[in-house]
Amino acid sequence: MTTTANDRDRSATPSADRLVRTPRTILGPYFTLGMPLCSAVEADDDRAPFTLTGRVLDGLGEPAPGTMVETNQPEGLTRSFTGLDGAYAITTVKPAAPPGRTPHLTLLVATGAMMRPALTCVYFPDEANDTDELLQLLSPQQRATMLARAVEGGYEFDIHLAGESETTFLGWPGLLGDTE
Question: Which of 47, 54, 70, 167 would suit a FRET pair with 93, their CA atoms being 20 to 30 Å apart?
Fold first, then answer.
C-alpha cells in the first residue's frame, strides 16, 4: 500500500491498520527549493559587469550537478546552481580591493555531497596578485587553483571539489565546533 503526500501530512505515524511508507529523502540537489536564483549584480557607472563561468567537478573530474555557487560582496549577492553538466554562470562586477588584498571574489560552494559549505577565493589574472596577503601564505600550487582564466566577456573558473586538481578551500575557524 502506498500513500500520498497528503496522507502523510494528516498522519505522521502509522496506525495498526495502515503502514505509511517513509518519504524519499535525498542529500541534494535541494538548495533550489527555497532559494532564489540571483545570477547577476547590477553594475554601477564605474565598473563594467563581467560573467564568471565554470564547472564544478568531483574528485574524478565528473560534473557535480545541483551545486550552489554563491558570492556575496558589497555590490550584491549572486547565486547560481549547476546543471547536469556541472556548469554555473554569474554576472557581477570586480569588487574593490580590501586593505592588503587584491580584487577577488569569495565563493561559497555547497552541494548535497558535502557536510558543510566550502569557501574559496577567485583571483583575476590581470591584477597584481603577488601583493595579496592571503596568496602570500599559500604555496604556488594552491595559488594556481584560485586563479581564474580570462575569456571573452569575463573569466572562467572551474571548482574541483577533490582530487589532484582540488581547489584550495579556506577554513572557517569556529564553524561547527572547529577550533583551527
Answer: 167
Per-residue pLDDT of the chain (180 residues; tens, 9 = 90+): 443 444 444 444 444 555 544 444 444 444 444 455 555 566 666 778 899 999 999 989 999 999 999 988 877 788 899 999 999 999 888 888 889 999 999 999 998 777 788 999 999 999 999 999 999 999 999 999 999 999 999 999 999 999 999 999 987 554 444 444
Cell matching residue 141: 600550487
Count of CB atoms situated within 10 Å of the CB of 76 = 14
CA distance 55 to 149: 13
Select from 164, 161, 130 the least CA-distant residue to 147.
130
What fold characterizes domain 47-172? Protocatechuate 3,4-Dioxygenase, subunit A (2.60.130)
Whole-prediction pTM value? Answer: 0.73
Classify the phi-psi angles of 76: left when phi > 0, otherwise alpha if psi is within -120 to 50, otherwise beta.
left
The domain ranges of the chain are 47-172
- Which residues is 92 bridged to in the sheet? 50
**Residue 96 cell numbers, joined:** 574593490
